[in-house]
Known about the structure:
The chain is α/β, with parallel strands linked by helices. It has helices spanning 3-24, 46-54, 57-61, 74-83, 95-107, 123-127, 155-165, 185-194, 217-223, 254-260, 268-279, 281-303, 327-336, 360-376; strands at 33-35, 90-94, 113-117, 134-138, 140-145, 148-153, 169-173, 199-203, 227-232, 244-249, 309-310, 317-321, 339-343, 352-356.
Amino acid sequence: xxxxxxxxxxxxxxxxxxxxxxxKETKFPKTPLFLxxxxxxxxxxxxxxxxxxxxxxxxLSWYSRDFMFGIKSRLSKKIADDFGFDEKQVxxxxxxxxxxxxxxxxxxxxxxxxxxxxxxxxYYKKVASERGGTNVEYPMKKGTMDxxxxxxxxxxxxxxxxxxxxxxxxxxxSPNNPTGNRIDSKDLKRFLDAxxxxxxxxxxxxxxxxxxxxxxxxxxxxxxxxxxICRTFSKFFALAGFRIGYAFAGxxxxxxxxxxxxxxxYNRVSEKxxxxxxxxxxxxxxxxxxxxxxxxxxYKTFLNLKGFVPFKSYANxxxxxxxxxxxxxxxxxxDERNLRIKFLxxxxxxxxxxxSLGTKxxxxxxxxxxxxxxxxxDWK
Length: 380
Ligand SMILES: Cc1ncc(COP(=O)(O)O)c(C=O)c1O
């Protein structure tokens, strides 16, 4: 073979080698991938985009005329019909964040107490003070569920604290953020029996992941007239940007029902998107199934890494306790690769991170990167 030919051959194989190496290198996102606020990375059902493309003046420029039919909105009517409620008992809001605010602003006066979970969404701790109220916190306990570490509602302690402090409002979150646990139905009943005379809010923002059960809603709201169950289209239905929340309010909560009524109607685009999402629940169920598979993969991976403790979750996120020795290094490593998870730093969670689930590929990339980091720093 001539020298010239030899040279050419070696330069081609070097190129091929480079290409091969490159194809083996992990491709990280060019801009931050936000797996830190429990948002959807899949987006809503395609029909939502189709509607938005053709939304016309009627939707954008005119108020709703649904009041002519004696209802607040076609969306509250649809939800009420689906569950067997009087439309009046369905409250629509600007996300479920707004429901909590309105419930507290409606019922809490200066000096009143609200009872909230300690290991929970930071926002609960903020709102009471807006009305001069104070928080009383109840703790969760740790146990296991299906062999995986799990947070549990400690109903005996909750009832005891409730009896001792006589709060004006009680909050339960199921599934809870960031722990991912839900309240067992027997425990819930026992607790609701104890708090029957008090406004009790169940925040079900993460309804739909792991379970789409609805059968209990009407019987509970009928049996406990001070109960309000809050839900949202932000999480399971992937519409956080549209801020659509709703609640089922018990019969004693007419003050709240009046307080939350908006006389010029609801957001017309939002109500349409809500309808579209509900109509296409099967599309969302498929995504939910993938989340369940991915969570299994993530529990397994974390349980194989020294010192990592994942918590079983019924939501679109997962809490994981990270060994303190490697936590800052892991955060830096992920940040540099544009993978953003929520490294919690609050009173109840100093060493944990909350991972919002992404697509199958994103979840795999994240877990592979965490495993790779542990290998690189020789963490075993
Ligand atoms: C437990 C919980 N409730 C309610 C909300 C608020 O959801 P939205 O206002 O988007 O309905 C969140 C948001 O992350 C949450 O984690």
